[in-house]
Amino acid sequence: MVARRHGGALSRRVSASTVPSSTLVTPQHISHYLAHNPRVTWEALSASFPAAAAAAPDEHVDAVLLSLARNPASSSSSAETIAKNAHSFFHWSASSSSSPHSLRSYCLLVHLLSRAALIRHASVILQSAITRHSSSPNSHFLDAFFAAYEDNGTAATTRGLHLLVHAYAELRLSEEALEACRYLARRGVTPSLPAFNAVLHAAQRTGRFRVAWEVFELMTLKRVYANQATVELVIGVLSREGALARTAALVERIHGKKCSPGVVAHVALALWIFEEVRTDQGILLLRRMLQRSIVFDDIAYSLIVHAYCDIGELKSAHEQWDDMVRRGCHPNAFVYTCLIRAHCREGGVSEAIQLLQEMLSKKLKPYDATYSHLITGCFRQERAEEGSEYFDKMLHEGLVPDIGTCNEILEALCGAGEVSKANELVTAMIDKGIVPGQDTYCRLIDGYSKVGDAQGVVKIYYEMEHMGLTRCTEVFTCLIRGLCQCGNPKEAEKFLSVMERKSLVPTSVMHDTLISSYCEKGNTKRALRLYDTMITRKDKLIPYADTFMTLVRRVIKVKTNCSP
Which long-range contacts (CB under 8 A, 24 or more apart) does 3-12 make? Predict the structure, then answer.
């Protein structure tokens, strides 16, 4: 930014304050001149301080700006006039020197301008300072800026500190803006609501969703409560994360009816903290929200039960449930499902089934997650008949969980050898528009391997090929392991060539699996040939010690049998 020159009025404005050229110019002379002239121009400064014009800015600028910052405006000069004169002096001194201004000069000027409510000028200077000093650690910049604020003494205002957060946000430096918010909070200055909203906006626009949640958490902890703009920004983050519909549905399931966007936003914050495994902080925040009536009682207590269930603290979860009932909150399907999940994870399937019966007796309808936990729990505890019953109920009611939960059920089904039911679930997923991924199909391959169905394993591979899911070594590792488990290493070995056609490199694990399988089948010759292939490759694959010893023992056994 270049200050305007107004040379026409120079003789009228400067004569009274001009310092003779023979006088040694000190920073006090310059600051006095700036503080007692109604309007300073570059021409006036050059005429008044010719010696200072030739000096390096570091010799005077810091001291001049510090003197102006520490002395409040007099009756004859307003804070705005002094700040504008300081602004002109800053640019004038920069134009007459080859060396740049110090960071301290930038910071002092920003505080002077913001104190006079010259926000636009202060913003430009501050953003310029951030850009110029971007190579330095952010903590160094923050320390310098806060020190300049403290140097203002009794004349200091926090306006410049809030402006710092805005400047980072406008430059879309959301991580640095968050760091600035935390720094100011540690120094006892809580950023303003508009400042927090600016950081949220920057984080949302740049896709820094984690930063957005951290900002929302910090402002709530510091009791800077959300306004409509905050809620809209958080809902925007939820939407871009693809979690808005799911969170709104969860809130409705707990409360029994739709809630305002503000409730949904704060519930999402609590859930995010719990996902970070910071249960105590999440519960503390929920209790604070409850005190401020930001969320309803039943929602807060249900989420606390959910948090305790997540970390496996069943006793605390049940105590919270009892407290919830004592306070007049009605249990809901979400709370029951949380407890069912926790009991199933602990192996308490009988207790989980009892909770389901209690849930049904209260006319609460189980949903996809309720059945998912029961199915997984039953099959893991080898209660296949009950697991199959709940599985059939779930599909009969048209319920299909999300892809992650489906994979958990598939793992339990395949682990129990229930491959046909696993296939049913995958079919139901596809019918509901859920596209199975690599993990889903690999679990099916493991299921077919467990029951020794090599044809089923190959069928799944070709289905994956059709879906474009065979472009990584993990799939072939699973496939080769599965076919060898079915006792068909010859078929498995064919897929090494398929891999090479796809420009994928076979691994030691694959060769080890094939060698071990051939040894088990008694085909020592083929096992030795694979071993030779491994060690003669350009990338030279090294077999595991167990595989090598298995091969050695097999060779010794063959030689012993062939001895006369």
Answer: 3/41, 3/42, 3/87, 3/88, 3/91, 3/92, 4/41, 5/41, 5/42, 5/43, 6/39, 6/41, 6/43, 7/41, 7/43, 9/39, 10/41, 10/43, 10/44, 10/47
Among 515, 518, 505, 438, smallest CA distance to 478 is for 438
Q: Which residues of 147-262 form beta strands (DSSP E)?
A: none
Residues in CB range of 133: below 8 A, 6 or more apart: 103, 140, 141
Task: Report whether 367 contacts 253 (CB < 8 A).
Answer: yes
Q: How far apart are CA 349 and CA 103, in angstroms?
A: 65
Cβ atoms of 367 and 335 closer than 8 Å: no
Of 156-170, 472-486, 508-522, 525-539, least confident by mean pLDDT is 525-539
- Smallest CA-to-CA distance from 182 within 224, 148, 215, 226 is with 215
Task: State the amino acid at position 457 in one-letter form.
Answer: V
pLDDT of residue 241: 95
For residues 163 and 155, is the Cβ–Cβ distance under 8 A?
Answer: no
Distance between CA 472 and CA 437 in Å, rounded?
A: 13
What is the number of alpha carbons within 13 Å of residue 274 lying toward its C-beta?
Answer: 21
**Which range has the worst mean pLDDT, 132-146, 187-201, 256-270, 326-340?**
132-146
